[in-house]
Amino acid sequence: MAKITLDNLAHSYLPNPTSEDDFALKELNHDWDDGAAYALLGASGCGKSTLLNIISGLLHPSQGRILFDGQDVTHAPTAERNIAQVFQFPVVYDTMTVQDNLAFPLRNRGRDEAYVAERVQEIAKMIGMEDMLKKKARGLTADAKQKISLGRGMVRKDVNALLFDEPLTVIDPHMKWELRTQLKKLHHDFGHTMIYVTHDQTEALTFADKVVVMYDGRVVQIGTPEELFERPEHTFVGYFIGSPGMNVLPAEVDGTTAKVGSQTIQLAGGYKPTSGKVEIGVRPEFAKLSQTEGLPVTVRRIEDVGRHKIIRASFEGHDINIIAGEDDRVSADMNHVSFDPAQVNVYVNDWRVAPDGAQSVGEAA
Q1: Cα-atom radius of gyration of the chain, to the nearest Å?
Q2: Please, what's the b/e burial string for 34-73 (b: 16 or more CB within 10 A of its CB; e: otherwise)?
Q3: Which UniProt keywords apply (predicted)?
Q4: Does residue 24 surpass a pLDDT of 90?
Q5: In whole angstroms, how far apart are CA 218 and each of 9, 52, 163?
Q6: For the purposes of burial, counting CB atoms within 10 Å of the CB of 244, is it exposed (0-12), middle (13-18) or buried (19 or more)?
């Protein structure tokens, strides 16, 4: 287990980068706690895998350092970092049995066969492959091979960190849930530092203690699932987390009110004068359809998804999503939407500002 420090870290795939736009990974300065479980979450191309490969030693950064427990490992080869990494697509030894694949990392480090056998049995049970231990990996399905990869990554107890790069891509949906549960149990039992790369918010939110949201090569917020939901520090976090994502509307903010189009809504706190691109953000869960209160909207359709209804509406050319309870009344004469003032966030140039006008801590991320 290790505390991982990213010190002035950045990376460009170009030989001579001249501007920030040339960097696939923009400057990062973060400490990730020893023994915590993190998820790197973001869209394809945001820098997640680049950062993971720098941590593992598969890629050397263009600038900055990476430290494990204060020791500079920036130029140390992967083997010296004492990490285990599981990739998006299965990497197995086809000519070996499932048992020998799982045992390989332990035998490679000289562990005695009694311990190897015990540990392999534990991992085989964890990944649901106890009855396949004697089978050769060749000829197994892609998801079975990926379970072997996961098992081989988890078989050692003494690693500094376990790194997962979208490891459940080829796994069937039911097994995804099972394996996520097992990964959580593994973390609880052994306290490994875990970093899990994914573009799937459900995977990230159910796996991690803290989610690291990345956008355009930079970390825009690190927080618990609750923090990401209630106080998105960047409009991308609000858009990417949640289904549907946060409603974002251009606004003019003045003190305790925001003018949205031709209408004015109330805010929970006062804001100093703002300039630049000013927007308000409010999640669909905190929007309410009514007959007379709030912004006049046109309801385009209602989607009943069982546990709740998603109401798709528009206001002066802007889409607004509203979530109503399954038993909430929705009728044709309900054509206004109001927002809970305490749940309305104000953004300037995509970053959340606090009610007194001071920049949120999220921008520093």
Answers
A1: 24
A2: bebbbbbbbeeebbbbbbbbbbbbbbebbebebbbeeeeb
A3: ATP-binding, Cell membrane, Membrane, Nucleotide-binding, Transport
A4: yes
A5: 11, 13, 19
A6: middle
- Phi, psi dihedral angles at 96 (to 5 degrees): -95, 160
Q: For the chain, which residues make up each domain, given as ranges?
A: 4-238, 247-358
> What CA–CA distance (Å, rounded) separates 275 from 199?
33
Q: Quick check: 362 pLDDT over 60?
A: no
Rounded Cα distance, 338 and 149, in Å: 50
How many angstroms separate the CA atoms of 196 and 182, rounded?
Answer: 14
Burial bucket for residue 216 (CB in 10 Å: 0-12, 13-18, 19+): middle
Half-sphere exposure of 165 (CA within 13 A, CB side): 20
- Cα 162 to Cα 191: distance, rounded to the nearest angstrom: 10
| Residue 312 reports pLDDT greater than 90 | yes
User: How far apart, in whole angstroms, are the C-alpha atoms of residue 6 and residue 175?
Assistant: 33
361 pLDDT higher than 50: no
Contact 337/316 with Cβ under 8 angstroms? no
Max mean pLDDT among 59-73, 81-95, 180-194, 344-358 falls in 59-73
Average pLDDT over residues 237-257: 94
- What's the CATH superfamily of 4-238? P-loop containing nucleotide triphosphate hydrolases (3.40.50.300)
Helix axes 113-126, 98-107, angle to 10 degrees: 130
CB 215, CB 46: distance < 8 Å: yes
CATH architecture of the domain with residue range 247-358: Beta Barrel (2.40)
